[in-house]
Queue: 2 jobs
Job 1
Amino acid sequence: MAIQRTFSIIKPDATARNLTGAVNAKIEEAGLRIIAQKRIQMSKEQAGGFYAVHKERPFYNDLVDFMVSGPVVVQVLEGENAIAKYREVMGATNPADADAGTIRAEFAQSIDANTVHGSDAPETAAEEIPFFFSDDEIVG
Ligand code: RTP
Ligand code: MG
């Protein structure tokens, strides 16, 4: 399996509880390397555009409101099979369904306040990374 890059967000519920380092420890323990990272306050336009794929879903407005409710940390992760590996480390979307030891099992509060985002496929990673990072901000 080739070296891949994936896009990650540490969501507002996690920054509010000072869990950035704890989430990063899980990422690094899994063998993924954080090759870009910045803490930002997303605008409504940014969050709406980022989650445009969910525009027709009933949870879209709540999701956008949640993502702008506080700072987030956006990241690029690199490693062997990084996209699937990070989804494994994150755990299921609903923390009630997340396997023990995953980020969402340990830290998430609800299906909305679920601590992290990770790209779900190579095509989405390829769109999501340049949405927040320029090439010179990523140091592999
Ligand atoms: P993410 O995109 O944040 O990595 O999460 P995911 O792939 O596991 O879940 P996705 O289906 O892409 O949904 C994006 C985010 O929307 C919220 N959500 N709420 N109330 C609901 O039924 C519901 N479903 C999804 C979650 O916060 C999810 O992370
Ligand atoms: Mg998703």
Job 2
Amino acid sequence: EKGGYPHFMLKEIFEQPNCIRDCMRGRINVEGTNVVLSAIIDHKEKLLKAKRFIIVACGTSWHAGLIGKHLIESYCRIPVEVEYASEFRYRDPVIDENDVVIAISQSGETADTLAAIDLARRCGAFIYGICNSVGSSIPRSTHTGSYIHVGPEIGVASTKAFTGQVTVLAMLALTLAKNKQTINNNEFLKIVGELMSIPDKMEKAIQTNNQIASIAKVFTYAHNFIYLGRGYSYPVALEGALKLKEISYIHAEGYPAAEMKHGPIALIDEEMPVVVIATHNGMYDKILSNIQEIKARKGRVIAFVSEGDEVISKLADICIELPQTTECLDPLITTIPLQLLAYHIAVCKGKDVDQPRNLAKSVTVE
Ligand code: M6R
């Protein structure tokens, strides 16, 4: 049931604060001093010894994997590769019993991800699943794993599953880092504290809904969109662009902002909307100069910034303020307005938001 919402997608976007509370329940203690993903503790030996992690996934789950790479490399100091399951399975990859494969899938039924798991298992790798759908094929074909516990996702465009996946990946990185002693205690406590405040900050991000709905009216008839981010925000840019493509059928590309000067900046003119994730974190000054480069070519900048930002608001055509959090958890906040932007543009265009053309919720064929 849509619970009073016009579409499942909007319901699922709005549900995210509670989904993330459910996802963290029983895994972080009330004092905020410990994070325990039981699958990690149960297989501690294997995971702590791993020489390399390989994340396999498709679509939105692959975007969550890119954030997972950043988290695991930063805090656990283990090299991580992120692979499209469809490429990995046909590439005769170098993989052995020292590798841990993390398979991420909302449905737990994606054919390419299942085949990638199968291949990695035959090569002797240890397989860890991150899934939503309980009892589906992927959790049954892995050695262990963690469910994201965000409830059934009906809309074809994945929303709450993405934030659930990122939350589990953050808890996974924290649990491993603590056990590996690759994170100092102050940093650990700071991130856990921030993680606990994410649901409330998500509520605030959702309050941008009306503002985003009016922006959608301005850009309904745009033919192209560019999405830019750096660091942890780069996968968010990819995810924002994918959401727009799949439900509004507008061509959209996500790029790491600094790559613009290597080609795509040639696309910028007064017709080109450029969505920039420019929250206050380590990459702020860099992204600020990327915005200046776009404005110099007359691009129309829609910037998502941290509350109280007074610099970018003077530069960007449109500026939306979001609650600030620690850099590695920023995707959990910045993704929400991009989901809303895609949703409202698709609604303005009269598209079938929950069942976009040519797409299925579970891709069970390759
Ligand atoms: O169920 P999965 O997470 O394995 O699905 C992977 C992709 O098919 C899925 O994320 C797809 O990209 C979504 N429609 C994106 O919104």
